[in-house]
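User: Hand in any protein.

Assistant:
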Amino acid sequence: MDLSLSIISFPVDEQTASDMAQLLEELPVEQRTVLHPSLWRADESRGFAVIAYTDQEELIGFAAAADMVGLHHYEWSLFVHPDYRKLSLGTALADGVSHALAQRQAESRLAAFVDDVEIAVFMKSIGYQPDFNEILLSAEPLRNSALPEGVKAVQYAGQAEELRALLAAAFDDTVLPILEHNMVDPDREIWLLQKDQQLVATVTLVTEENALWVTAFAVHPDQQGHGYGKMFLKWCRDLAFQRGLSEVLLDVETDNRALHVYEKSGFRRIQSISYWKPGRVQ
């Protein structure tokens, strides 16, 4: 069988995007997220796909890589049709990713896959080693979850210094470039939770494939332990209900101390995603 591999930048053309979506149609929506389907056709997205077609013009595998926040830090993953996994196509696609990342002068790269024994063997075979794991959590939209008196959620409207101070206190200064990206990305909504006009928490929301993603979620350390995180997450679920979305998703590292807050707010664990970085295990 003759195969052709090529590298195409985002946004990809409509036919290629359709072929990619068709190849993944048997996968649960949650397992597709590591392949960045919302970015394939987005005008402002930074990324590329490595695509493999047969001589019959059938797409049998592809890799997708995205610079998520415009800082030359790429996340990538790949998928090969089960009938063609013995052709070393995965290795060829990974080589294509490496070539494209070198061309783009990527400063760092991470590969993301739903946790799986076969994936672990494959990643080690191409020179990657485990970095960290995240848990993907899901909650159903929630109807009529009102905030208590004196507490309100407002959309970001230029409160940059206040927001920077909260995120730096909750995490550290390394999160600030992500905030700057979120401020200018039209597809990302920054929301603030205020108690008597004082900023106590923030979240950035992204809608993808009928799901509301919760990202950059933080409660100011001085305000933790008062239930603000739980009420803000329930408010996000209510917003998803108002918008007619099917679920609310978020991912969190396995050792994150806030995991219990998410679970007490109605989120359930769906799957574990493993992240891999270059460098052989000795």
About this structure: The longest strand covers residues 128-139. The radius of gyration is 20 Å. The chain is about 30% helix and 35% strand.
